[in-house]
Amino acid sequence: MGHDKLRKFAENETFGCLLQPSAAELLADGYFALRDHEVKGHWGGRFENPDAPLVLELGCGKGEYTVALAERVPDKNYVGVDIKGARLWKGAKYATGHAMGNVGFLRTRIEFITAFFAPGEVSEIWLTFSDPQVRSENSRLTSPIFLERYSKFLSPGGLVHLKTDSQFLYQYTLAVCRANGLPIVASSENLYAEADRFDPCLTGVQTFYESMFREQGYPIKYLCFKLSDAAAQEGSPESSASFVSPEDFDAEYWRSVEGYRTLFGRDTAETRRQKMKGN
Ligand SMILES: C[S@@+](CC[C@H](N)C(=O)[O-])C[C@H]1O[C@@H](n2cnc3c(N)ncnc32)[C@H](O)[C@@H]1O
C-alpha cells in the first residue's frame, strides 16, 4: 500500500466525525443476520442539533457533495457513506478542519447499511453518480434489493434522489419506479438545461464525478422519488416494503445507447467490452 494511503488511514483514526466499524464486528452473526451497530437509532447524538433531519449520501467518494450540502443547508444533518477510506479522508479532514457540527462519515459497504440506521431515522437519501452496474442488477443501488434495505430506515414519505450521467441507470430506475408504483417527485434528462425548474442547490453544488462528466459533455440526469406514500406507511414505521424488478426494462438496448466512458483517461471495463464488440 502506498505511503500516502497509509498516512490517510492513520489520520482517519483521529477524526471524530468518521465512523469505521470493522466488517468482522457486523458479520459476527453471518452475512444474512448482520449485527446492529451501536450507533443505530442514535445518530442524533453525533451532531450539534440532534433533532435535525438526517440525510445520507451513499457512495459519497471524497465527500465533497456531503460537505457542500451541509454548508448550504445547516438545519439538516448529513452522513456520507463509502467503502474507500482514502477517499473519505478528504471529506472528514475538511469537516474536522471547519468544525462542522452537521456532518458525519461512515466507512462501510452499502450492502450493510441496515445495521446502522433505525426505522424512520433517515429523511432523505442521495445516490450520486453510482456505478450503473450494467451487468449486475443486484449491485445497482436503485435495484429492488437495495430499495428494500433503504425502506427499513427511510421515514414515511422520505425522498430518494438520484443524480447520474448514465442513461442506463436513469431509465432503469424509472422502470423500477413504474413497476412498483413509486411516486416520482421530480425528474429531468438534462438537469442543467432545465436548472430553473429546480432548487438552486441541485445545480449549485456538484460532485467530483459530476464535474468530470459535465466536462466530457454528458447531460446530467436527476430523479427524485419516494419509496412509499407517507399515508400508506403511517402507523407501521417498523415495516419494510418489498419491491419487484421491472419486466419491461430492455437492458440490452439501454446498454447499447449508453455511449463510451473514460475515467481518469482510461476506458471503463464496459466501454472496452462495447468497443471489442463493435470491432
Ligand atoms: C463513481 S464514484 C462516485 C463518487 C461520488 N459520489 C461522486 O459523484 O463524485 C462511486 C463511489 O461509490 C463507492 N461505492 C460503490 N459501491 C459501493 C458499495 N457497495 N459500498 C460502499 N461504497 C461503494 C465507491 O467506493 C466510489 O467512491
Description:
By secondary structure, this protein is of the alpha/beta class. The protein has eleven helices and ten strands. It has helices at 3-12, 23-26, 64-72, 85-97, 144-151, 167-180, 200-204, 208-215, 230-233, 251-256, 269-278; strands at 18-19, 54-58, 77-82, 103-107, 122-128, 154-164, 184-188, 221-226, 262-263, 266-267. Strands 1-4-3-2-5-6-8-7 form an eight-stranded mixed sheet, sandwiched between helices. Helix 4 links the parallel strand 3 and strand 4 (103-107). It is globular. The two termini are 37 Å apart. It binds S-adenosylmethionine. S-adenosylmethionine (SAM) binds at residues 59-61, 82-84, 87, 109-111, 128-129, 131, 207-210. S-adenosylmethionine (SAM) is lined by residues 59-61, 82-84, 87, 109-111, 128-129, 131, 207-210.
